[in-house]
Amino acid sequence: MERTFLMVKPDGVERGLIGQVINRIENRGFHMVAIKMLRISQELAEEQYAEHAGKPFFHEMLSFMTSGPVVAMVWEGPGVIQSVRRLMGATDPAQAEPGTIRGDMGTSISRNVVHGSDSRAAAEREINLFFNDSELPG
Ligand code: CMP
């Protein structure tokens, strides 16, 4: 069964959008199999976003991602990786379609409410960064 990693970023938590994000994915028929609220450390943020190291927005993004609690989740279901990406919408809320999470709730490219895995490899890597085997159903 396919799984993906989804995070409500500090802006989404601060603005009280956790429930709305979860609702949209549950309404689509997917199942949440793990969830936790945590404050991301600098080390974890650097590891999660390693592919963006050196980009002009990297340091600002890390300081935002470590600025407050996030909600990390694992979702399961057929085609869940691409479906959640469609539900999230384009990275930049200004480009995201109305009806998507970022199109309806995002306020800027960095404060775009959610992060979701973009491939099977990324999903596996991100799930394992945030969750131990004992926190995931077999
Ligand atoms: P996310 O899906 O979490 O993956 C990488 C993040 O980098 C992305 O969402 C954006 O929030 C952020 N990002 C990408 N481009 C920029 C940019 N030009 N300025 C600030 N943040 C960016």
CATH architecture: 2-Layer Sandwich
Overall body shape: globular
For CATH, the homologous superfamily is named as: Nucleoside diphosphate kinase-like domain
Order of helices and strands: EHHEHHEHHEH
Measured distance between first and last alpha carbons: 11 Å
The tally of beta strands, per DSSP, is: 4
Any overview of this molecule?
The structure is a single chain. The chain is an alpha+beta fold and 138 residues long. It has a single domain, classed as Nucleoside diphosphate kinase-like domain (Alpha-Beta Plaits, 2-Layer Sandwich), CATH 3.30.70.141. Helix content is 40%, strand content 17%. A four-stranded antiparallel β-sheet has the order 2-3-1-4. It binds adenosine-3',5'-cyclic-monophosphate (CMP). Residues 52, 57, 61, 91, 109-110, 112, 115 line the site of adenosine-3',5'-cyclic-monophosphate.
Describe what is shown at a glance.
With 138 residues, this protein is α+β, with helices and mostly antiparallel strands. Helix content is 40%, strand content 17%.
Question: What's the structural blueprint in terms of helices and strands?
Answer:
Elements: E1 3-8, H1 10-14, H2 18-27, E2 31-38, H3 42-48, H4 58-65, E3 70-76, H5 80-88, H6 101-105, E4 114-116, H7 120-130
Antiparallel strand pairs: 1-3, 1-4, 2-3
Bound molecules: adenosine-3',5'-cyclic-monophosphate.
Adenosine-3',5'-cyclic-monophosphate binds at residues 52, 57, 61, 91, 109-110, 112, 115.
